Amino acid sequence: MEIRVRVGDISQVDSDAIVVNLFEGVEQPGGATSAVDKALNGAISSLIGRGEIKGKFGEVSTLHTLGKLPAGIVAIAGLGKRQDFNLDKVRGATGESCRALRKFNCHRIATILHGTGIGGIELEASAEAIAEGALLGLYSFTKYKKPEYEDIKEILVVIKEGDKVPILEAAIGKGKLVAEATNLARDMGNEPANYMTPGQMAEIAKEIASKHNLEFRVFDREDMEAMGMEAFLGVAKGSNQPPKLITLAYRGAERSQEALGFLGKGITFDSGGISIKPSEGMDEMKNDMAGAAAVMAALAAIAQLKPKINVTAIMPATENLPSGTALKPGDVLKAMNGKTIEVISTDAEGRLILADALSYARKLGLSPLVDLATLTGACRVALGLSYGGLFGNDQGWIDKVLRAAQRAGEKMWQMPLAEEYKEQNKGEIADIKNTGNRYGGAITAALFLAEFVDNTPWVHLDIAGPRLSHKDGGYIVKGATGFGVRTLVELALSEARNQEAI
Length: 502
Ligand code: BES
Ligand code: MN
Ligand code: ZN
Prior knowledge:
Elements: E1 2-7, E2 17-22, H1 31-39, H2 43-49, E3 60-64, E4 73-78, H3 87-103, E5 108-111, H4 123-137, E6 154-159, H5 165-190, H6 198-212, E7 215-219, H7 221-226, H8 230-236, E8 244-251, E9 259-264, E10 266-270, H9 290-305, E11 310-320, E12 332-334, E13 340-342, H10 350-363, E14 369-373, H11 377-383, E15 388-392, H12 395-408, E16 412-414, E17 432-433, H13 441-450, E18 458-462, E19 468-469, E20 479-480, H14 485-501
The chain binds ligand BES, manganese (II) ion (MN) and zinc ion.
């Protein structure tokens, strides 16, 4: 899909459809919406008067122009209440209106820059958000099934004056790149586990590396044995698929400068192992590698945006399956950092593979760290399906990640790394055990990970909730969401800006 800037009057653009907007509660539309309303002899204001068009966020009203305008269809995207308006609403309204127009078989659509009038948003920011909203909202996973609708081929972003065109084109370029990376993570997450094996994840990382000039490494079982990664290998024991520890490194700054470390849980299928999960909904566990996919896709975007910073990604990938060689409850494993772990549940596998990945990150000297993991059902219970749970050991670093998430439009909520629950993780016959009691499960999981980071500034994002969506809405599409990609990219960009400022 092409997204281009066009200078002119939206009501005169020759396209299959044009998109204007309305804030909730506004009775007399202004700006471009008003111009289109006039050309339609007041059809829009009359529908507002009758209460058919309300401007609620997520609403898309469509009118056929019957020859009154060059475009055949006008879509009016609801922006919601003005006091609740923000950039993420631009992404959402764009996603919604693009999906609605795709159903009408529109191939070419034109849009105004939502929110740049009374919404108070900068032109560039709106253009970037429109590119993201369109590409994310129109995503579909079509590898194994014909798509329901034809693709939209072109979006024209229509502006009144010509002098901003290059700046807006650059903003669209960035939005497009970040959305494409998110869609790459979605593709990986939507792939079934019979295709998306640890070996396949390593292949994809290798392709990304050669395409975007990243350093790629992969460690096999024997390498990991030599490094003492018994916790990771313990999880891999039950599977016939060889485990892979995958790393990608981006260098945008001096080699001597520290590198950020991004880690992602890459369980390509989580059956629970011997502590097997109930069969209902187990298919969703093909997406237990969403953290690794997000980290990998973020590096692909960072490599193209080229911030002046170093970033290394670490992605431990394996299946978690039961078998005659599988890890058993009660087994004791010695992690790479020397700590002994008593395995109470083989279903608490994410923290086991991340324990060794975090130790390896520290061995590489990466700092600060962020890990993304579909770690606990408890976090979904605590925060629901929209919010990721955020934990950390350094409030300054936590705040930076929260701000990046806010800019990216990804919802994250800080949770306590409550020291007083640490005793729940005390082992009977080993240093620690891999589950706590019934309460505070997302917290005890985070406390377990904290055992492997020591004093390195670190943030843990539990993305068990937002990794998947059960319905379309705004720029979210049913299936894998690619949650976390946009925050990581924002974070790398803002860290690079900070380092330059120093
Ligand atoms: N991958 C799951 C967590 C999960 C659950 C993600 C639901 C997405 C949706 C993780 O490996 C797991 O099984 N966690 C256990 C931990 C428990 C055994 C302490 C859980 O949450 O039940
Ligand atoms: Mn599990
Ligand atoms: Zn898991």
